[in-house]
Design brief:
The chain is α+β, with helices and mostly antiparallel strands. Helices cover about 50% and strands about 10% of the residues. The chain has eleven helices and six strands. It has a four-stranded mixed β-sheet with strand order 4-3-5-6. Strand 1 and strand 2 form a beta hairpin. Helix 3 packs parallel to helix 6.
Length: about 260
């Protein structure tokens, strides 16, 4: 089982890595459009700041968290509205994001053991909440990196993202209106250091294998499966790679496949 303090350190480190990528950017770059339709680099950071804010409410004031839902004019647009509301000039937005994420780490560390925090459509342990925040920070960081044309170092923090991707197998099916399978799936991923990360029964007939980063890009819907070196064996595993979704809420639009020269197919 993952130690919460270690996980929170990884979350802080993942956030700091993205911070170091965006902090030196001129204001004009913060306005550059990212692969997420309608979102600039500024929107990506504003979204993280907004989500850290509502996660902090979930950890410290459940009534205030629920109020953000009940007072929303359109709950289907809360994510986009939140990003717009938190959007600000780069220096102000950076300060807001840094303060919010630090407060969230402290709040999650202080949550009593066994407590479940309210969240959208579910309840989460502090460990699950921290894992989800790390997943989102990494995924939105990929959008920023893609926009800037840089490749970020791949770290062992990806194991948290991969673990969440495996645990949300059933959610991916359900989000797409399909019955969650009961067939076990073996997952074997090549870690950044060359080690192998595994989940599921070793003798399972349905299997997914490939680079850990590719799996994480898939479950966060940052790449189309056609652009990734993932191998699915068995009907359940194959269908899973079409619906995989590590984040809460309705199914996303995903990304279109690209051709070998990077032009949209």
């Amino acid at each position: 089982m993952v130690d919460l303090s270690d996980l929170l350190t990884d979350l802080a480190d993942e956030s700091a890595g993205l911070d170091s990528l965006v902090a030196p950017l001129p204001a004009t770059d913060w306005a550059r459009p990212t692969p997420a339709a309608g979102w600039s680099i500024g929107h990506q950071i504003a979204h993280l700041a907004w989500t850290d804010h509502v996660a902090l409410l979930a950890a410290t004031d459940a009534e205030a968290f629920y109020a953000t839902v009940t007072s929303a004019p359109d709950v289907t647009r809360m994510v986009d509205v939140g990003a717009e509301e938190f959007l600000a000039p780069p220096a102000e937005l950076l300060d807001r994001w840094r303060a919010g994420r630090a407060a969230l780490v402290d709040a999650l560390a202080a949550v009593p053991a066994g407590t479940k925090l309210p969240w959208y459509g579910t309840r989460m342990s502090p460990t699950s909440m921290a894992t989800a925040r790390l997943m989102e920070t990494w995924a939105h960081g990929e959008d920023v990196a893609d926009t800037l044309g840089v490749v970020r170092p791949t770290t062992d923090r990806l194991r948290h993202v991969a673990h969440l991707g495996v645990r949300t197998l059933g959610h991916g099916f359900a989000a797409h209106g399909r019955e969650a399978p009961t067939t076990p799936v073996r997952v074997e991923l090549i870690a950044p250091d060359g080690d192998t990360w595994t989940w599921g029964p070793v003798d399972a007939a349905d299997r997914v294998s490939g680079p850990a980063r590719d799996f994480c890009l898939l479950v966060t819907q940052r790449r189309h499966r056609a652009d990734l070196a993932l191998l699915a064996t068995g009907p359940v595993a194959d269908e899973w790679l079409d619906v995989a979704q590590a984040f809460a809420g309705p199914p996303g639009d995903g990304r279109e496949p690209t051709s070998a020269n990077g032009v949209r197919a």
